[in-house]
Prior knowledge:
- The chain is of the alpha+beta class.
- The chain has helices at 2-32, 84-95, 161-167, 171-174, 221-232, 242-254, 296-302, 306-309, 352-364, 419-428, and strands at residues 39-40, 49-56, 61-66, 72-76, 80-81, 98-99, 101-104, 120-126, 131-139, 145-150, 156-160, 189-194, 197-203, 209-213, 217-218, 256-265, 268-277, 280-285, 292-294, 322-329, 332-339, 342-345, 348-350, 367-369, 380-386, 389-398, 401-406, 413-415.
- It has 3 domains: 39-174, Immunoglobulin-like (Sandwich); 184-309, no CATH class; 322-428, Immunoglobulin-like (Sandwich).
- The strands form 4 sheets. Strands 5-4-3-2-8-9-10-11-7 form a 9-stranded antiparallel β-sheet.
- A hairpin with a 4-residue loop joins strand 2 (49-56) and strand 3.
- Helix 5 (221-232) packs across helix 7 (296-302) and helix 9 runs antiparallel to helix 10.
Amino acid sequence: MKVRGLLVAVVLLAVLGGLLYWSNKKKKAEENKPLTDIIKIFSFDSGDIRKVEIKRKDGELVALEKNKDGQWAIVAPKPYRADQDAISSLVSTLATLNADKIVEEKPANLADFGLADPALQVTLTLKDGKTAKLLVGDETPTGSGSFVRAEGDPKVYTIAQYNRTSFDKKLNDLRDKRLLVFDSDKITRVELAAKGQTIEFGKNAKGDWTILKPKPMRADPIQVDELIRRLREAKFDPSASPEDQKKAAAGFASGALVAVAKVADQNGVQQLEVRKSKDDYFARGSAAEGVYKVTSDLGSGLDKKLEDFRNKKVFDFGFNDVSKVEVRDGAKLTVLQKSGEKWMSGSQEMESAAVQSLIDKLRDASAVKFPETPFPGGGVEIAVTYGSTTEKASFLKTGGKTLAKRDNEPSVYELDGNALDDIQKALAAVKPAQPPKEEKKKK
């Protein structure tokens, strides 16, 4: 009996082992099986879509059309410039629209889903002239999606609410709200008339911004880029009521002129005029009809004087890798040259940290103002080499002030009174490197 029971147990164990093997094998096969449950409502190449019409139950219609240059334009209810990014996102969602699930294959009553008289109808026209229409009904009971149906397909689907949000757009959502339209990468000139002075910016042979008018000067690239950013992001609110628009027009007409900015790119010159009435700013731009209230950020960003845009740094090397520093103070000449990772003075290795401290002082040398008086001449001459570029400047302390002048430039920089003293102290602290201390031998 014991042997028989043992045999039964062995057989049962073998059966269980086989079942477990086949179960694991089936599970693994299911895991490796490609997904086939994606429910496609539309499957188009977004580049093939030429027109989009969004019609609401109340009759409101927004029609979009791609022109020969591949740019989208609003053609109804009347022509407007279009927000290319917003429309590209809308088209991309519709072109490959997937459903969360099929609710009913053949619904008996479309009204149960809000599809007998849909809240929204979206029609796509492809480059071959064929059309596809999406009917959008009620939200699902949980509010996480909406019921939809494609024309010509009897099924009722649900789509995620975020998908509906991406194409359920009104006119103002799709309008280009910029007051100026330009390509930041192709700007050739920027002009700003403010504070009673006109400043013109252009790019030099290296592609860096420079001041052209009222006379050639170095420009602070960060400040010029910030000016361009403010102009690029200057926008109006298309939802302003007629009453708000009247107030904006009145404020602009009576307001004090803050600034007039002009931007030139490959398409020509555009202009933005900003005025201030009490605490509010109003603007009129070349790319939009009418006058609009704008942010104080834009108004204050254009209310700048020449000095705000001048490069106050005496040296341009920034965080470039400096390879040589020369300082001539009277008859004394100090030359620090980098060799590999070491700083050398002739054949003598110098303390790298001390040389770096000197370079930091030179990098930080900045004007607090720009006096109109000429540079007296003389002083400490400093040259800094990085890459293939060498910058030279003279520093002089006179009357408690530190003045500086770059070679071949007329501008005089007035620095903090102790700036030259700090540079000379940093230079004096540059000493020969100490040989590494030998470790004491253990007894």
